[in-house]
Amino acid sequence: MNRRTQHRSWSRRLRGPSPGSALALASMVVLAVLAAGSVQAQSFTTFEAPGAGTGAFQGTAGLGMNTSGAITGAYIDGNSVYHPFVRAADGTITAFKVKGAGTGALQGAAAFGINTAGAVTGVGISASKLYFGFVIAADGTISTFKAKGAGTGVYQGTIPVGINTAGVVTGEVFYGASDASLGFVLATDGTLSTFNVKGAGTGTHQGTFPVGINTAGTITGTYKDTSDVYHGFVRAADGTITPFDVKTAGAHQGTTGISINTAGTITGTYKDTSNVFHGFVRTASGKITMFDPKGSLGTTPGSINSAGVITGAYLVASGGYQGFERAADGTITTFTAPGAGPSSWLTSLLGKHTGLPLGTAGLSINTGGTIAGTYSDASNVYHGFVMAP
User: Fold this and answer.
1) What is the pLDDT of residues 328-345, one digit of tens each?
2) Which side of the chain, N or C, has fewer Cβ within a 10 Å radius?
3) Under 8 Å CB-to-CB from 329, ≥6 apart: which residues?
């Protein structure tokens, strides 16, 4: 699978078919195959954003969630245009229009992160297929931004992927003809600074790709070196960067950090020599534990909460994805959203043009253990869901 991601996030999923597009859900998001069962006593709620399309590869995707249970994401309308929304904890859904977003198919805007105050960040894609960032304040005010030096070519620009409690935003900047990437940090005073991991390549589709940020401002993600191998990294708020690798990752495949909690524990994915994705947990001290749900043909964690509980998705033999929850003690339970339809390998591949999985995927988990995500039905229409403990 390619580099297109949320959860990398779904951020680069608006990106074109370029091989340098960001880490997909299968970057999203084979030791220790832990006991797996079915989640019991869970409460599923499905939700649809007003205006969401009802055709194949259209619908509603819940992508990020905050402590209070507010969810942000995007809906895809009947013309395959993306629109950001926020779903309040009481179920009220508010859609937003981002100035400068294109109105053609696979254009528009998508929100990826929401903080405790209700501020949202995400990416817009213009009619000329240029990326730019936006922030929606808790009062609904929308501001847009782009990094100085960001590329102005097709599928270049600025892509935010996360926002923390203080309102600090991180993401990546694609620049130059090579389409290489730098990480960026947007401070609360509006100052935007870029950074690059030492050893990151500067060639085509190489560079530094932030994915997650925690309350302290510590960032995790991946960088691609001059040999096109991915490595994980942690960047402290003071700018100190520590690279890391899962030992069993393939020499030509690599490691990606996806989500980081308040304790500095990271979850992410690595790819083995057979090009299969597996999950991992890395503590703040650097200890790494690998994991997969039983029967997984590819595991992609999506989010880790302050208690160390992880949610994500894994590929099954019949095609498509199922959701999972991994407790802090390593116990894994699996779940499928009621109404989720079967998916073949072919339709799973077709779904990649949206960057969303077909099947069920947990994409965010909050402090209380509530999971938000998306699932596809038998007609390959996407729906948002909330699964409360």
Assistant:
1) 999 999 999 999 987 554
2) C
3) none
| Whole-structure pTM value | 0.89
Cβ atoms of residues 375 and 360 within 8 Å: yes
Residues 304, 378, 277: CA angle, nearest 5 degrees = 35
pLDDT tens-digit readout, 154-211: 899 999 999 999 999 999 999 877 789 999 999 999 999 999 999 999 998 899 999 9
In this structure, are residues 333 and 371 in contact, taking their beta carbons and an 8 Å threshold? Answer: no
Cα-trace Rg, the chain: 18
Residues ≥6 apart with Cβ < 8 Å to 191? none
What Å distances lie between residue 375 and 3, 306, 338, 363, CA to CA?
22, 25, 9, 10
* Phi, psi of 204, deg, nearest 5: -55, 125
The token pair that represents 16 in the structure block: 């074109």
Question: Within the chain, which residues score under 50 in pLDDT?
Answer: 1-41, 345-352
Backbone angles phi, psi at 183, to 5 degrees: -80, 155
Overall fold of domain 11-388: Methylamine Dehydrogenase; Chain H (2.130.10)
Query: Among residues 284, 275, 274, 276, which one has the least CA distance to residue 304?
Result: 284
The 10 Å CB-count burial string (b at 16+, else e) for 299-314 is bbbbbbbbbbbbbbbb
Query: For residue 355, what pLDDT is reported?
Result: 62
Structure tokens given for 291: 């994991």
